[in-house]
UniProtKB/TrEMBL annotation:
Keywords: Exonuclease, Hydrolase, Ligase, Nuclease. It comes from the Bacteria. GO terms for molecular function: exonuclease activity; ligase activity. The keyword Manganese does not apply. PANTHER family: BLL1145 PROTEIN, CLEAVAGE AND POLYADENYLATION SPECIFICITY FACTOR FAMILY MEMBER. The keyword Hydrolase applies. This is Ligase-associated DNA damage response exonuclease. InterPro entries: MBL, RibonucZ/Hydroxyglut_hydro, Xnuc_lig_assoc. Its EC number is 3.1.-.-.
Amino acid sequence: MARKNLLEFTPKGIYCQQADIYIDPWQPVNKAILTHAHGDHARRGSNYYLAHHTSAHVLRLRLGEDINLETIAYNEPIYIHGVKVTLHPAGHIVGSAQIRLEYEGEVWVASGDYKTEPDFISQPFEPVKCHTFITESTFGLPVYQWKPQPQIMNEINQWWEDNQNQDKVSVVFAYSLGKAQRILCNLNHELGKIFVHGAIWNTNEALKKDGLHIPATIRVNRELAKDEYRGGIVIAPPSALATPWLKKFQPYATAAASGWMTLRGAKRRKALDRGFVLSDHADWNGLTSAIDATGAQRVYVTHGYKSAFARYLNERGIEAYEAETLFEGESIDNVPVEGED
């Protein structure tokens, strides 16, 4: 039986005609539902935003204090022109949500970005039964299979301790929203002082207002003497990589936390001393298990290895299509952000 189309991919974004609302639009629209606060999913200029409670302050930090923002809890239904809309945990970052839409018995889920491994700071991923599922495929190849988070965090702590023994400052590059908080919450704070870039400091302050507990850190600033950093660890966004901002920490060792560190050569191309395979996106097993759990008969594959992943799903008997979007997935590159000291 042919399925109804509750969502369509338009030049402005993913659109629900029945509710007259867009999901993560990449152009300004009248009404937008946001899966999370990363810049490729939450963009400025729309007249109204709907998102989860725990992304409220970080959205205002990124989009402006004066945005017209309504927030709801997970599994709290809201009805828009007869379409039932609920948000469900995506496990990607704090406040991230899958968007479930139901209309006349038809159910679609737009997952945004997601990961299935619990990180113990964001609400764990929740599979949602649906007829049609929109999935990312950032790491949609079998080569991408993550080690357990505790193992990676132990590696980061050991690297920090090794650098201390060489009288070096440890500098880890990680997304300001999501990965930076995961690392901060799992560092061994008994090892030494923990410093954060201004962009991460500002993000942390916003997340604290939304109820997230974040351990104490020191903001990098011009007033701190160079000796203050000795033996410490600094968390910075990828935008700070290979910039004069790093000079204040010499001598230092650098590392990046990214799923792309799986690839041989990624660390070398960025002139990093170390790479840690840590991602806020689902790996191959996470993607396939999540889709299986939805029971979806049709899947649209967005950013990432979408051609290969859609082909794999079709070979398994799942009706799958590639979808063009402006979502970017994960990168160890980043645009400059406010708050750089």
